[in-house]
Structures
1.
Amino acid sequence: MTTDFQTARVALGARLRELRSEAGLTGKDLAAALGWQRSKVSRLETGKQTASAEDLTAWAEATGNDGQAADLESRRRALESQQRSWRRQLAAGHRPVQDRYVVEYKGTATVRGYEATVIPGLFQTPDYARHLLIKNATLMRSPRDTEEAVHARMRRQEVLYQMGKLFRVLIWEGALHTLISPPAVMAGQLDRLVGLIGMSTVELGVVPLGTPLPLTPKHGFWIFDEKRVIVEIISTELQYETAEEVELYGRVWDALNETAAYGARAHRLIARARASLGSP
């Protein structure tokens, strides 16, 4: 069990204890009202046991806080899904992870994203994705199912052509110059980005090098329908679903967006990176 997981579970327990106390109930009173053992109430409040969705609904009702049930459930889901180790996720290769993303993006209407070092998977060419996935497989020592993973990643991009969806994506200009592939492959990737400018489902912004920034973003992140944030770090995929965390990442995205170049300005920045490759 991870330290972060346990810390979050203790925090949920503290919130449960607060609701019970505000209702004027002792642990014994609450256990009797719910038909539980007194020890269960204690374990939940001290973070020694993870509450189920049913437990939280019953707790909210018994303490006269029906309106808090949704918040408690959000905390529980965030607790359970907060960390996904890449080593565990990639045990069977990259293809299963890409398949999961296909489903995730199909079920989302609006996405806001930011990447600082890599072209987002939604916009990658097959060749660029292939080089990136090979490097990741080498790093993580995971099974090499590159072609299957590339195919699944390309299927994810079908959402870009579906009416009613909107992908608002920011890329730091440095990612346009990061060579994780041969220059010829990177040139094709930059040409692909230019082709996305003006699409009805895509708002592509480039945060220019040298522009004054209101903050220093530490990593890329993706916000799904303003309900969930996914952050990828080297060892782990993190997911956050509490209103406070989603709002925090939303503020970061808004601040970066104020500095971003769009349309013709973004095209010029991409063209500048393309020109730096020479004529591959």
2.
Amino acid sequence: MTSSSPTLRVAIVGAGPAGIYAGNLLAGAVAALEGRVEIDLFESLPAPYGLIRYGVAPDHPRIKGIVNSLHEMLDAFPAASDDEPAATRRTIRFIGNVEVGRDISLDELRERYHAVILATGAIRDAALDVPGVDLPGSYGAADFVAWFDGHPDVARTWPLDASSVAVIGNGNVALDVARVLAKHAVDLRTTEVPDNVLEGLESSNATDVHVFGRRGPADIKFTPIELRELGEVNDVDIVLYDEDFDGVDPAAASTNQLKVMLRTLNGWRERPQTGASRRLHLHFWHAPVEITGEDRVAGIRFERTAPGPEGSLVRTGEIREYPIQAVYRAVGYYGTQVARAPFDPARGVVPNEGGRVIDEPGLYATGWIKRGPVGLIGHTKSDALETISNLVADAQAGLLTPPAEADDVLAVLDERETEYTTWDGWLALDAHERHLGENHAHTRERVKVVPREEQVAVSRDGALVR
């Protein structure tokens, strides 16, 4: 900070966990900055929380705790007052339904703030380069997750006519997709799943869901709780294949978490089948080769793999084919680019060193757009700490250029008639969704409002009457 500019103004692009953690840490650093900190948190959706709201299956009870934690972070910072002591002056404003690069440019933000932090995450599916990947019936897992989470920018319906389905991937997203496909819709009625999703899942023809991983059971990327939830799904048998477990010793697992998961898998192998109406198959050592079919997906072909030297994977030449009618690709996410921001298309990230965007003073990155789409919430926190520590150090060293424009960004958005939403607007939408849940035929904590225009209307009207 410089003596001529006692207020540090920072824009954060993205209001998922990465952006909220960064804002919270920066607001907490106000004493070190010896001045006021004003933070504007921009989000392209009308509501906050990013992938926590739109990227995680609705039947995860622990997600409620994460949302509550993020809510408390944002709700803790009312608008700063000039009468407030300098050492505690800070504010975070949520500005939703504003896409940077469409409603306002990155250059315009940089003219109005000392620093801009990119926290856009990764919402697109990573590519799977095999023949047939573009056939009808081949879907990205991220798109399916967005549908069952009620994302406003995806179709309201989803084709669920396939009886046999393949899910490619060995991470938590693959398990989410497989569990939702295998689960009976009646068992989701108490969650916040939107009504259009319930209706779609109730008409699903799925009887067999196959999850395929390139590596073996000792290399799974699940977490124990995600795996354990599979075994608790009503009227679904878990099917495992003994050949995939040759040489796998839970006692030799590299971590305690892996030991727990291998014991869980072995327990399922010994559990007798119940004759359930649906089955969830877990396959290992399968590398996808081709999605087959003419007018739409009719099957999928794999090559068996085996462990190679020094942790490598080798192809065995053995080909196996499975008749299926739909494929869901859960092989990772790809970073969300911001127009006019540096971007590495090979890695899907913003090139940076410790969160400082390379050759762009005053521009920072945090979360998945910084490090790539790996890691859990805990990694996002440590990511944000590194980025904010470097931003604060730059501010203390006087390396941040003062804003060239003094006008409030909201005045710019008002002039353009952008229907932005606010924190008060989110509180109104949150209350509205909870009210819908209380009055639903199947009582729920909330029922998500899906259409963007309806979210915006409830948010803006509700905020005006508060």
